Amino acid sequence: MSIVHSYRSASIDQRVLELFALVGDSFVGAKEALLHSDTSITTRLVDRERRIDELYGTLQHEVSQRLMEDDHQPGELHYLVGIVRIIPELERSGDLAEHIARKASLDLTRDLKPRCRGIMEQMAELGASMWTQASLAFDAQDPSVANHLDQLDESLDDLHVSFMTEVASSSPPIAIAMELALVGRFLERFGDHAVNLARTTASLITQLDPYPKASSED
Length: 218
What we know:
This protein is mainly alpha-helical. About 80% of the residues lie in helices and about 0% in strands. The longest helix is centred in the last third of the chain and has 33 residues. It is elongated and about 60 Å long. The C terminus is likely disordered. It comes from Ferrimicrobium acidiphilum DSM 19497.
């Protein structure tokens, strides 16, 4: 059971969760658009991206207003700074989903070998799973998920290497190979965003820096 800290804002948390849901749905839709070259899905996702951008702006404004207040409860500033880190990560993840969906018009998967297509699908499914877990961690205020996603990210990195090896061995036209390389990078980067979000979520609960500076000692 999560502990609800008094310095947290229910409205901010709710908007963050809405962004998590919108981006997660966009990513799943982008995967389907890409794998099936379905540009009708892409059109719908472009409209959804506008909603993500609007909600991002609203959330930024609310957090900025709270940061400018004179009196803050203990822990509140750490929470607000954490949210400031989270919302751009969410917005950039939405952009990634849109970038992936836009590749549907290129029909990149038409001539892919089954193994290469299968690895691409595995990457997308793992990225979607990591995103869901990051969202649930924020909702439940669960700091333990970050370490688990670190492990899953290593698996995603391995899949990315395998995907690029398959692309190279199949010797597609250079233009197609470059587009597939971008898609692979987008899928891998989406998982990175999920990891970063889980780390920052953990810091909201533990009050520790999610990215501690390395020691300068030899």
